[in-house]
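Assemble and predict.
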Amino acid sequence: MNILSIAIKEMKHDFRDRRTLLFMLGFPIVLMLILGLALTNAFSSEISVGDVKVAVKDATGGGPLSEAFAGFAKEVGKTGVTFEPLKPGANGREEVENNHVSGYVELTNQGISLYGSSRDAIESNIVQGMLASFTDKYNAAAAVARIEPAKTEMVLATGGSDYIRELSVDANRTPGSVDYYALAMTVMVGMWAAMGAGALIQGEVLRGTAVRLVIAPIRKSEIFVGKMLGGIISNLLCVMVIILFSKYVFKAYWGHHMGVVIAVLVSEVVMAMSLGLAGSYLLKGTASRGVISLVVQLMSFFGGAYFPILDDEGGGLMGFLVNLSPIRWANHGLTQVIYADNVSAAWPVLMLNIGFAALFLGVSILAMRRREGL
Amino acid sequence: MELWTVGNKTIMLLFVVTATYFTAAARDVWLVFLFLAYLALNLILHIVKQARTKKAILLAIILFLIGCAVYHPYFALLLPLSFNEFASFYPRSNGFLLLAILAPLMVLRDTMMILYVFAAALSFFNYGMVRHYMGRVGKQEDELENMRGNLQKMAKSLNENQDFARASEYMVKLEERNRLTQEIHDGIGHAMTGALIQMEAAKRLLNSDPATAETLLQNAIGISKEAIEEIRVTLKNNKPPVEQLGLSRLKTAVEAFSGRTGLMTSVVHEGNMEVITPLQWKIIYENVTEALTNCAKYSGATAVHVEIRVLNRLIKAVVADNGKGAAKIVKGLGLIGMEERTASVGGTVVADGTNGFNITTLIPYAGR
Amino acid sequence: MNILDIRGLTKKFGDFVAVDNMSLTIREGEIFGFLGANGAGKSTTINMISSLLRPTSGEIRILEKDIAKQSRFAKTNLGIVPQDLAIYEDMTAYENVSFFAGLYGLRGDKLKERAEEALEFVGLSDKAKSFPKNFSGGMKRRLNIACAIAHKPKLIIMDEPTVGIDPQSRNYILTSVRKLNESGCTIIYTSHYMEEVEEICSRIAIVDHGKIIAEGTKEQLKSTITDVKDIRIELKSVQGTEGELLKPVPGVRTVLQEENVIRVHSDAAVDNLNRILKQLMDAGKEIRSVEEQEPNLETVFLTLTGRNLRD
């Protein structure tokens, strides 16, 4: 009960402080807008894939697979993906290795084998995706043929546009600039909780009210938990406002796993609060606020909140720093969740955040115990 | 300290040796040479005594290690140890030390970098702690030495004081006895002798001339009366009033202090000194002399003022100097002693350092 | 019953002894004044009573229960008005009071009732919904008091509650202190305004360098210095018979005469000025001026410590 009333009081502070609130909400939204519009070209979603050439070797010697594949090739040909028969005497795999074609398909009676090129990753992905949907269709058709041969044609005939639809969806699933910044800003605001948390205890000391809290017949842990809870809720509300704003006003893409995204953000806010709290306990005095906000800004910068930092920059001091930033973890994990439907990518981020939160909280509690007063 | 650094260095060296020599595919004779050279340099380091030579050798070791590190990067792991040793000559420059230790990070790569960071952190922490504790041990030893000296001095002065007190007490008693004997002899002795003679004469004349005898007897009675009166006066004169005893003793002590130290002193008293009991005088006397001693030792004052005031329900004794005082007073043994003494009669001692040093003893008394 | 019992309380900050082996007993119903210069150890003592600081040694009992062992009990019975304002500027007066009272376990209607009562008590009912940032210094101080009394503590400690406010608010606060005391609260009041302490406190301790150097009612304190008051009466003319005239008045000890002024030394404990004047007037003396010099706490402090309270 005491915890709850302290949490509510804490939220009153947060939401009555208009300037900070404006900063917490306005700044990321404006930044999202400016950076999202200014840096549109820096993102690769607009790259044209161009014509994709795939070599085909038909080793089935005719038959339903061969026929169906021919139909599929014709249909798909309209979108710029051309399947050409392998020139006699040429080795399909070598062709791929030498980058003459983007992929090489072998049709046998056992099935279809695809050799993709790791150089043209996007093209290979596209081809792989299309082939996967083709085989699904073909298998379905084969099953139908066994029972009701007449309907086979129908199944295959309706296929045409399906391949293309899937293709186009695939192409959209890399983040555009607004999408990127919507995510980056949200994650950054989550991390800003650290700055508020730095002032959580010190604010009471500065206002003189720490005295009243300590002399009241409540446990220090209640004060502690109540304040944390209030801070976490306020910050989460800010984060939610930014998510909703970006989703409905800027039409940013947030994927299909909102629950997971929010869970990651919750863990991030908790971690940030603990970081700020530990900071304010370890670095006494008002200097701690400066240090905490500096750290948060550095994290934002290296975590790619202001401009994207490339994936493959491992090694070196930069890569080291980049990977230290919790904003980076969250960005990375959430990109996977949103754009690759890879929910399991959220786990390491959650675990890291919760682990660090526990660590920082432990440090704060130790420091609090040793201190007289609050 | 020595043993600690040698141990640290040995462990690190063994690690480097294991990591380079024994894990390499081919036996590298150069490595053996470099290790031996490193060992030799370190041995010299521990043999020489002069600080300056030590520093020179340490620099040489550092340069040598840098050279070796070019040949085989693992040598860099030995660098932090030498940096730390070098820094131990400059106890206040931890920042520079850290910078120097971290400098090689710029050139190291990958695994080496990580190894180096841990080696450096470990040695920095180790040396830091060792230095910290060595400093503390040194300080405590100094303190112990000081206290031992103090104890000796105190014991000596205590002995001397006791001897002196005993001797002077005896002297005073002798003198006093002498004076009393003289007084009794001069005054009462003479009178009694006179009376005795008169009475002898009266006895002889009792039958022949009763009238003269009566006069003689009357004389003897007069003389005896006078003598008794004189005894009373002598006794009264010889029993000094308490307040005079206390105050004059205090005054004498303050004057003696002034003579000893050359400080200006003044003693002021106000109120009815008679209410102060001998026990209270004793405490006041001891507190005042203790405060004076402190004043001479620490205050840098040129004048001390002693004031005894008997208020309505309190006796107040103040020793105030015009020295530098103290913003925050740290209680020493002297002050604690005063407090304990004063607490035994229900009083308090307040020490104030805001305007010169000022020790006030407050003792309550029952009043009339 | 003793509401507060302090035995051998000591607090050291490093080598510095802020509170030095202090012992003190306060009975229920008193207004106890803590008098001392800045840095004398008043606030440190109060902080230890309110468990903001841990004593280096010694024991504190509130209502005969050790606060180290039964801190919840002690805290529930204690209300503190801190020297520095301790209110949230961004919460209304009512929210402030009810938040702090809520920490003492008050809930729902009872909380509301107590909070309103406390605001009423300090005269801020009409400002319940206003934010303290718009308050004057005196109003903030009053709110500061309201926050400490809403849970009806048995012992209220007020640490310099009148620093830096206008005389009107000051009087209001002093009146509230008396009213609180009449309603059954024991109050510990610290101040370095001598007059305030002299005016409202039933018992006073003079604290210097972490020690209580004198303690008692103000009369007792004054009598440690002297129990003589000095009355100077200027007459139009002096005959020399005034001494005989005043001797029978109770309390009068000596009468001196300096030109046309007579100086009467009298028992400070006896209130006899009126009788002295009546005696003179009945004898047809014409009085020009009267000046009574009674020892006050300021002189007590000065005499005992050799320093002024406000240096």
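Residues 167-182 of chain C form the longest helix (16 residues).
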